[in-house]
Amino acid sequence: MVNSAEVAAALLELVTGADGCIPAWAVKDQPCPHGQVLGLFSGNFTWPSTGITWITYVAAFYSFLPFVLLVSIVLGAIWTQGVRQLLALVFWQLGQAIGAVLKSTFREPRPEGTCFKSCGMPSSHSLAATSFFVWIALEVSNSQIMESKQKMLLLAAAGLGLLPITWSRVELIDHSPSQVAAGAAIGALFALLWYSLLCQRVTIWALKLMKARFPCLKLDYPLDGISDEPPWQVQNPAYGAAAPPSQK
After folding, report:
1. Tens of pLDDT along 180-203?
2. Coil/strand/helix, residue 159
3. In Å, what is the CA distance from 82 to each residue of 76, 149, 217, 225?
4. 79 phi and psi angles, rounded to 5 deg
5. What InterPro entries does the database record attribute to this sequence (predicted)?
6. In this prediction, what percent of the chain has a pLDDT beyond 70?
7. What radius of gyration do the chain's Cα atoms show?
8. DSSP conformational letter for 239
9. What CA–CA distance (Å, rounded) separates 20 from 173?
10. Residue 178 domain flag
């Protein structure tokens, strides 16, 4: 699978460059003096060489969760062949691309103490975590088929699993508080725009066309299901429809 974030960052670096984000130890071709980068893909983080406590393990766990989220989405899409998982995958890739474009645009270095060499404004971890939480919150809150207790449990689980990711980036010194705050704000705005797009009638039509073109897909979005639209009613008989017979 193509990593859209890396592709966008590579293209923009050809134009703008990112030399201002590279730490001094990397410029001198020296190893990171603060620790080492662990994790995979979107779940990587700086593991410090000193000052490790149980909080460090908790922060590392949460910083690794975006990778778990991505794998879960991909496996879910393969297993269920559901439209919901495909939308989540598109949502993920768009968010990562937005983060990469903004990082290459602002070119703000990460704080002293990280082992990353890339730019840090905004935090892609925070953008992903906040955007998914806001999207889930909007879907769950506006559902008509879920009970209040079920909504509360889902929102609590999503908040517990996603929101601490933003804290972990500051705890591990991979981002500054301002970079995390910017990522969270951008992620929330992105989720609002995404949800607004999904609520449009044209999106529902597109999903129906996708289902017709690919019958193997499971049309499991929206959460409440797609209701058939009633036939259009002509309000004014002057537009070609015969007026109903008068009752005398």
Report:
1. 999 999 999 999 999 999 999 898
2. helix
3. 8, 26, 6, 13
4. -75, -45
5. PAP2/HPO (IPR000326), PAP2/HPO_sf (IPR036938)
6. 83
7. 23
8. G
9. 18
10. yes
Query: Which pLDDT band holds residue 14 (cuts at 50, 70, 90)?
Result: very low
Supply the range of the domain harboring residue 203. Answer: 35-213
**Considering the domain boundaries, does residue 78 fall inside one?**
yes
The domain total for the chain is: 1
Using the predicted structure, report yes or no on whether residue 100 has a pLDDT greater than 50: yes
CA dihedral in degrees (106, 110, 115, 119; nearest 10)? 0
Q: What is the pLDDT of residue 91?
A: 97
Neighbours of 158 (CB within 10 A): 18
**DSSP-assigned letter for residue 112:** B
CA distance 174 to 167: 11
Separation between Cα atoms, residue 173 and residue 152, nearest integer Å: 32
The reply to whether 23 falls in a domain is no
Q: Is residue 12 part of a domain?
A: no
Count the Cβ atoms, other than its own, within 10 Å of residue 234.
12
